[in-house]
């Protein structure tokens, strides 16, 4: 069920009841007028009179009675410019004005036949019928809204909809067995203090950060930055201004930490400046006495919330003022740490792949390619440099905000997945970064197997990372990086929180955390990233410049197998020392090899050994063999034979059953649609990964066919799938029959349900993938051959043919460092294809002009402006417009003023709570 703000459903219902009552009166009045019009038409003596009667009646119903009469008949002195324009364009008013003129003509001109009169009568009767359908549709839509509000109002209170402090006799029923199992594991971790060898952690950090003069200098600067920030923050006189409250509140609301009651209260704070100022003053008072701050002795309520991926996460429900204070401090510390770590990344202490080209090779290239004049190659633009830029921009410390305005990603990004419409997505979200990582991985596999003949990738994360992170480990690392002692004491207090499960009722026991970090707190993320930064740097150092691609505790490494072994050794040592454990279910290795000679550069372009693989003895490399297991992400697994991601259909089957269970629990049409949109429209599609050039068309076809299988499995008895099921649901509940497909997919502004169609989103980009990934590389290799011939010709022209130019093998030896063509292909393969918009037909164009400003809603939806519509809505409008127009005579099933749009918008924005 949709979760909205505390007390809001009743407020919404009151507003809706008033509007529905008024609409009912208007509907009754319309019916009386319609019947009067029909009776008068039936009594009319001839066809012309029938047409005139219908015209006068319809124009009165639409509020434009002047369109049925001649100006002189009305004794008007003038006609407004707006009315004149309205009857001169392609609108219905223009049609009415024309019929009025033609009827006048028919009084005198015998060439206006009875056939024409009959057609006008039929046209007007059809229009009256459309008006009736639209009024009926408005009444039906209001009933659906009422059903949803009543379902929210009568929803069984639970921990995620009630504040335990005010409803002590109400608690969430015991969840499914898997929830209880996960809770037992969680409790076994957070209430037990792990044994950490402090000396081993200190020795590890010293070996890592003080082994060279460059690393010692970078560490010194990092410590100075952190210490200075902590000292200045602690010495503040006024911490938070009224202006700060906006970004503090906005980021806290995005964290998914607050209950719906606290969310409503915080939004009210933000609306009322006087109240916001009072809150600001109280927060400053708390911050001024931070040393004495502590959690309430009777414990902070916690609850388990089910996520779409099947995991149940534990969220705290602390005092709102504490939440705001911790959000402020967490953001400030996170920004400072990200800046300090980025400075470290930019220092000479961080190794780069670019340093691995032998000096003799550099000199040889300089002699052959730069002496004759300006270099045709830019050393500052290469695949290796691009790798570092992408790593720095998208993967290094991206869990930490760079400013207070920065949108930091959710832990698993589920919030954005469940709320964001594919046609309305803005900016790059965490889910986009995850998909880009998969695109990068496949692109690297294609490039490296082609260049070097093999490619190895390993992937893992830490088991129960949030709950299992030892407090001692975090405090040692934070102290090592320069955090002042008074702040360390506060952080210890924050971590050692007394908690109680609201699911256990009013007599729940209180226990103090001994391990792990609270969910969805910015301080928690900051501490975790500070510890994981050590692993990032360890991998970079041991692999001589390669980088660990990491999103929170989910990390990937790839390249030559020797590099992967060294990286895995470094990760294994890090985990052992820091008291962490790898998650075996998500740990695995896949090895890919070049399959055929046709996929190489050919006889004239020789694949070279990986110049970036570390030069280590084999017995040293095998200290920790690479982990076994598959490489998986979402519903995908990396197939070593096919060299691409394929969908795990068995895993999909498990989620088909879960989706069926969630849909069955929905008590209203709106909540059913919201669940469907979140699960089928976004969750499935997102976990198939967004298409990219490196994936090719086959990936899109695989995703589309799987979505089709899911829909057929859920609705085996419905030829039209989900819409057939919804059509039957609506018929059973509201006795509304024969709804067109457009009703389900059109936006709510036009009287639709706004069901998402993920097939369209995939088909929009399918035809924009026209070339295979290996074909794209071949073009780059051919262009390199052309560049080689041109460089050779220029060299001999300058020096003469007696001088020896570099061989083709020398020219292509360090392609990842020097080849522009390879760089262009590399970037092209990681690119997500643009959506290819369909064409506008004359039929749709005609009916778009009939949409009023009120009907059309936002420009990103279906509107009268084709250019302003997104490709998704253009497709939806074109494919379904025929049935909509046939039934309602328009793209809108109802006029906007008859819709409770404010209520619908609020219900849509509420976060969906999945059944536990």
Structure commentary:
With 916 residues, the protein is an alpha+beta fold. Among the domains are: 2-153, no CATH class; 644-769 and 836-912, no CATH class. It contains 37 helices and 13 strands. The strands form four sheets. Strands 3-2-5-6 form a four-stranded mixed beta sheet, covered by helices on one side. Strands 7-8-4-9 form a four-stranded antiparallel beta sheet, with helices on both faces. Strands 10-11-12 form a three-stranded antiparallel beta sheet. A hairpin with a 5-residue loop joins strand 2 and strand 3 (312-316). The longest helix has 40 residues, at 114-153. It is globular and about 105 Å long. It starts with a strand and ends with a strand. Mean pLDDT is 86; it is low at 3-7, 82-88, 156-174, 411-427 and 598-619. Residues 404-426, 593-624 are annotated as: Disordered. This is Reverse transcriptase domain-containing protein.
